[in-house]
Design brief:
With 310 residues, the chain is of the alpha+beta class. Helix content is 16%, strand content 40%. It has 3 helices and 19 strands.
Length: 310
């Protein structure tokens, strides 16, 4: 019997193709790659691969510790809480009598949270030199958090709350700092401090006058007593200054010089009692005008007036 090559060769080729098509192998090995550690809310990419001769198509099934699933040789996943998670993947094809599984451990951590100030307050913001200021602050972040106040006058305190009294008037910058192992945060407050004044100071409109003997600029005992009361007012009311106006009565000699000397005597009494010279203005007004030496009670014009100035 004669064989025809035109028939035999195509048949052999078909048999070879069918043989090659059926030569794929089952899944035997499975490898998983991906990150070992991730931050909370950081997305990780995981890839699975099988033995090269495994017959496609290959089916991959992923399961994560939070019961979420995915499919495909490469998947992504995000973990939203810290902890150690197990990533499971199973691969199989139609040639396999069984599937192959593999696991990977992933450690998910939460980055440290630095201290961040939530609030910083001071009450009152404009105290006087006798009033304590109450400072209070708060912060969030990883514990433990330490707190520190710098009051701006060389004094400091620890703790979220503190109290401080400024001894001198002025403008101060108070700084509140919160710190932990991850970092620190600061906030500043401006404190305007005024010098203390007695409550009655705002109502002071006049002060005692000092009266002199005829043709004299020497302070009498009565004059000193009157001026001592003025000194107490000036001490209680540091925002009050004084203008001294001194006079000579009709008939007194050298009226201008005498009034100048009387003004100077009162000024020196005040400075000797501790009142700052910059708070005092003194001037002689000369002879009182509009009266004569024959006017009854002329001694009332031999005087120095202390006029409060605010």
């Amino acid at each position: 019997m004669t064989k025809h090559p035109s028939i035999v060769y195509p048949l052999a080729l078909l048999v070879g193709v069918l043989a090659l098509a059926g030569c794929g192998k089952p899944v035997r090995t499975l490898t998983v790659t991906g990150p070992d550690t991730l931050r909370v809310e950081q997305t990780g990419t995981f890839t699975a691969s099988v033995n090269e001769d495994a017959k496609p198509p290959i089916e991959y099934t992923w399961t994560f510790s939070n019961q979420e699933t995915a499919s495909g040789s490469t998947v992504t996943h995000t973990f939203y809480a810290p902890g150690t998670y197990t990533v499971n993947v199973t691969a199989s094809n139609k040639k396999g009598k069984r599937s192959v599984s593999q696991q990977k451990q992933v450690y998910v951590y939460r980055p440290p949270v630095p201290a961040a100030i939530v609030s910083a307050t001071a009450n009152p913001m404009s105290p006087d030199t006798r009033t304590a200021v109450n400072f209070s602050g708060s912060a969030q972040g990883d514990a433990p958090i330490t707190y520190r106040w710098d009051f701006g006058d060389g004094s400091t305190a620890s703790g979220a709350s503190a109290s401080h009294t400024y001894s001198r008037p002025g403008t101060y910058t108070a700084t509140f700092t919160a710190s932990n192992e991850a970092g620190s945060d600061s906030r500043t407050l401006t404190i305007n401090v005024r010098i203390y004044e007695a409550p009655y100071c705002a109502t002071v409109t006049e002060m005692n006058s000092a009266f002199f003997e005829r043709n004299s600029s020497t302070l009498t005992a009565d004059a000193r007593a009157a001026l001592n009361e003025n000194v107490q007012v000036l001490r209680d009311c540091p925002n009050t200054n004084v203008r001294v106006e001194a006079f000579a009565a009709p008939g007194e000699r050298n009226a201008q010089q005498l009034s100048d000397d009387r003004a100077r005597a009162v000024q020196e009494f005040y400075t000797g009692a501790g009142i700052t010279a910059s708070r005092i203005t003194a001037m002689g007004m000369g002879r009182v005008q509009g009266v004569t030496s024959k006017k009854e009670g002329a001694d009332q014009y031999r005087r120095a007036d202390s006029i409060p100035i605010r």
